[in-house]
Amino acid sequence: MFTDDAFRSLDRQECLRFLAKVPVGRVVYTLRALPAVLPINFVLDTDASVLLRTSPGSELVRAVDGFVVAFEADGFDPVTRTGWSVIVTGRAAVVTDPAELERLSGTGPTSWMPLPDSVIIRIESELVTGRELQGMYSAA
Amino acid sequence: MFTDDAFRSLDRQECLRFLAKVPVGRVVYTLRALPAVLPINFVLDTDASVLLRTSPGSELVRAVDGFVVAFEADGFDPVTRTGWSVIVTGRAAVVTDPAELERLSGTGPTSWMPLPDSVIIRIESELVTGRELQGMYSAA
């Protein structure tokens, strides 16, 4: 019988705890009217927004600055077929406030790539949804 | 110095070899004019298209059937900061041809969820791009 029992919805706090466990997520946006996605390492800010560091001239900055994007992270175990996924949806913007940049200089995201110059993109956590998949075949 | 040397572009065959290594990827699409993403297990067909199985009444089917979507898979090692990502972009459609369905009944994707009724979605691999991240800080 088909039910959604295999999935358990996660509340916001559970979502944020899962997000804090992984270093890499995926920015989902629109580029030239087509769906686009870029995996990138991230950190969570204290207000639960997602912080990324990238090159100021990057395609990512041009595509997402000022727009609503989704940010997805997940973890799956193919043996037990269990896992979780969390999606943050909200407006993305380059951080420009000097006090914010100063604050984030220590705790903010680093890039996994060497960047001579970089900007921080903040994705507001306006909507945070997630679900946990609990041994899908155990109920089959 | 910033270069893209940390990234190596993957050719189509390399992309497909990486894709074949992982059971789960992420469908990236548009839902109510917003970017949307759903992790799901998949298999590659012999023509390198991506095959997913889901419920016929799912939001995913309504959102992607007949539209161009992206499908992303990746693998990262946070210790060495190495990894890879592959993105397939192409038209998604529910498989309806009886001969195709018969052919895929054995080799096609299974769902990680119990489904009483299901459809197979095919994402054509019209554009396949990928990159490998080789010890990003080794060049810093």
UniProtKB/TrEMBL annotation, chains A, B:
Entry-linked InterPro entries: Pyridox_Oxase-rel, Split_barrel_FMN-bd
Top-level taxon of the source organism: Bacteria
Alphabetized SUPFAM superfamilies for the sequence: FMN-binding split barrel (SSF50475)
Protein name: Pyridoxamine 5'-phosphate oxidase family protein
Organism expressing this protein natively: Streptomyces thermocarboxydovorans
Pfam families referenced in this protein's UniProt entry, alphabetically: Pyridox_ox_2 (PF12900)
Cross-referenced Gene3D superfamilies: Electron Transport, Fmn-binding Protein, Chain A
